[in-house]
Structures
1.
Amino acid sequence: MYCFDLSGKVALVTGGAHSIGFGIGVGLAKAGATVCFNCTSEVSRQQGIERYRNAGITAYGYLADVCCEEQITALIGQITAAHGSIDILVNNAGIIKRTPMTQMCVSDFRHVIDVDLVGPFICAKAVLPGMLEQGHGKIINICSLMSEFGRETVSAYAAAKGGLKMLTRNICAEYGHANIQCNAIAPGYIATEQTAPLRQLQPDGSRHPFDRFIVSKTPAGRWGSPEDLAGPAVFLASEASDFVNGQILFVDGGIQAYIGKQP
Ligand code: GCO
């Protein structure tokens, strides 16, 4: 069996009905995995199943909120009963709120931390006992450039993603001895619904200044796409990365290596 082959493996991609999670789900499925995803509304569940079907993939959609431990425990039980095990967890579900800190209410800050940091803790905690029992497991946390950098308006998101980086290292530290690898993918600027406001055309039809800023900062000269994350996810989900643990793999078109194009 080729070391990138995921045949016989079962993956849960949280929030995998669309955007980055979907791109990763498709990649894992094409490498042979059975892909399950969760979301919080029946409409997204149906749309997710349909989206995978259009890509030629049978994916299994479930309703569960990553912030609710009870629902996630039940979800893991359901998936294990239906598909035998969970070999790969991709902690992808996340939200962002772009609000200057002095205007941000504490409940909004807590909500972002809850989904983007506590959610991955809940999901990892729920899959770890099964992974320990079966003697192997892959946990992939979706971090961000904001795991390293700050910028105006994203205090909660950056705090959560910075925390997720350390949760990644801590899971590695705590369970690496049990043949469990926990790594992270840190996407750069990816064209998704979440970043759509940063790319919206100006009233005069010109490109958003932030859009131009990002392209000028990215050696690849473009925004990433969810498909750009599929290969790195397959690598971190497969035997090819069995001795890679606690790492943050930046998939950012080189943005961190570049000072940016001179204006
Ligand atoms: C922003 C963006 C970012 C991205 C991404 C960068 O407002 O700057 O939304 O935070 O979503 O995570 O890696």
2.
Amino acid sequence: MTGTEISSIKTLLSAPKRIVIVPHKNPDGDAMGSSLGLYHYLKHYNHEVVVMSPNDYPDFLKWLPGDDTVLNFESNTDICEEHLANAEIIFTLDFNALHRVGLLGQDISKSAAIKIMIDHHQQPDDYAKYMYSDVSMSSTCEMVYNFIAMLGDLNLITKDIATCLYTGIMTDTGSFRYASTTSQTHYIIGKLIEHGASNAQIHNNIYDTNSYEKLQLLGCALSNLKVIPEYRTAYITLSQDELNKFNFKKGDTEGFVNYGLSLNNIIFAAIFIEHKQENIIKISLRSKGDFSVNEFSRHYFEGGGHTNAAGGKSDLSLDDTIEKFISILPNHKNELTS
Ligand code: 5GP
Ligand code: MN
């Protein structure tokens, strides 16, 4: 963001406004943490602020400060559309294209509000007046911290803001272990702890609140894990029947894909999850090093994301999706084996 843009945003925010903040569909820790962190910051200036999630999100995020104020577009469409129609500013957080918020995207397009994007995904679309897009960032939460810094307001970071931002940085960096984690990320994390974020408690709330059934589902996923050593690839499948057997709830499969990547010599991991209701296979892809799962997902599975973490989908059956996936691997033999 340029100095001029920052000054314009500062002027824009100098009088109370009606503001809507939107994270991506199926929001994760970074999407909800950045949205609620920004929410608490803007509330300080007496703006009328609403965080609007395109749909529901996992229970392990429902303790975040301000969570009780979040509106769900899917279950409260009328109220949400009223807020969107009246909004003067819409912040879009942790996504790069309006199709990432489903039907809510049409209301954002229609709205006359000034749009501000804060995001770290690759190849951002050009729908926002102000774009703070930086693919080198670990997380959108790190960017919200920078955004507050650019506005000269680091002194306004409260325990609530710090807690929200810490959460998203932690979840998007796999607890500070992915390559996207920089010394600056650690510096900011240190500052957030100074401002009151309780690292042990946040970690506990996110990672140590598993249900017994979720762990049983993980057991099922791990027994379905397949390895293709010649392409240094591992993948997991979960059918709808398997999800039903373990009483699957939103968020239960978060992180499963990483088990494939933890295998010695594996640099490409995938999980394929059958969703009978939507008639799609949801796909998560992860890699180590230069192999871009963003490009892979864009090319073959209608998705995208980052170099080392991306999502996508398939309209084929679970078996046919796996067959397609395996048949594609030889196209990438060089990248996967070099
Ligand atoms: P996950 O596998 O956890 O759903 O997603 C991994 C990363 O890719 C996340 O940063 C997520 O926001 C992003 N992502 C997931 N699906 C899509 C998609 O369809 N398009 C784009 N551009 N990014 C996606
Ligand atoms: Mn993110």
